[in-house]
């Protein structure tokens, strides 16, 4: 039986078990912006738990709310697909894809926007749990 090797990533084949460990693997501006992103998400979702999922930092309540990650030229923010559509007018200054937003390293993190997106995800997460309870 073959064993899986650690996932290749911009920071090598490392496997992270904590958000602190992940962030400490970066230096300079990237590390600073990762710490800032973490703080902003924590402010918006104080009840959420920090986890490592897909080998990157995530915040989880009932399910995962958002992920974030550091790269050579940007901070990746992964709030799933619906917020990218809902906030598309406010995201025109950033590169986006179906479920991802890129915040360039040479700019500041748009804190108010990140908080709005995280709060939107909390509402989605809460609604999903309520819907499941109604079915039960």
What does this structure look like?
The protein is an alpha+beta fold. It has one domain: Aspartate Aminotransferase, domain 1 (Alpha-Beta Complex), CATH 3.90.1150. 40% of the residues lie in helices and 22% in strands. A six-stranded antiparallel sheet has the order 1-2-3-4-6-5. The N and C termini lie far apart (39 Å).
Keywords, separated by commas or semicolons:
136 residues; alpha+beta; Aspartate Aminotransferase, domain 1; 6-stranded antiparallel beta sheet; 4 helices; disordered N terminus
SSE topology:
Layout: H1 19-24, H2 28-44, E1 49-53, E2 56-60, E3 64-70, E4 74-78, H3 81-86, E5 95-97, E6 100-104, H4 111-135
Antiparallel strand pairs: 1-2, 2-3, 3-4, 4-6, 5-6
Helix pairs in contact: 2-4
Number of helices: 4
> What is the fold named in CATH at topology level?
Aspartate Aminotransferase, domain 1
Low-confidence stretches: 1-9
- CATH class category name: Alpha Beta
Please tell me how large the radius of gyration is: 15 Å
This entry's quaternary arrangement is single chain
Largest sheet: 6 strands, antiparallel
Biggest sheet strand order reads 1-2-3-4-6-5
H-E order: HHEEEEHEEH
- The average pLDDT value, as a whole number, equals 90
Q: Tell me the fraction of residues in β-strands, as a range.
A: 15-25%
Q: State the helical fraction.
A: 25-40%
CATH architecture: Alpha-Beta Complex
Count of distinct structural domains = 1
Q: How far is the N terminus from the C terminus?
A: 39 Å
- How many β-strand runs? 6
Helices and strands: which structural class?
Answer: alpha+beta
Global morphology:
globular
């Amino acid at each position: 039986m073959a064993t899986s090797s650690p996932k290749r990533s911009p920071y090598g084949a490392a496997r992270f078990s904590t958000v602190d460990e992940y962030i400490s693997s970066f230096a300079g501006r990237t590390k600073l912006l990762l710490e800032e992103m973490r703080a902003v998400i924590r402010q918006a979702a104080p009840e959420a738990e920090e986890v490592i999922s897909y080998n990157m930092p995530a915040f989880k309540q009932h399910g995962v709310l958002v992920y974030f990650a550091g790269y050579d030229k940007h901070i990746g923010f992964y709030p799933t697909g619906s917020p990218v559509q809902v906030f598309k007018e406010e995201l025109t200054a950033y590169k986006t894809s179906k479920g991802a937003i890129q915040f360039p390293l040479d700019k500041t993190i748009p804190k108010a926007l990140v908080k709005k997106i995280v709060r939107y995800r909390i509402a989605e997460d809460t609604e999903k749990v309520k819907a499941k309870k109604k079915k039960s």
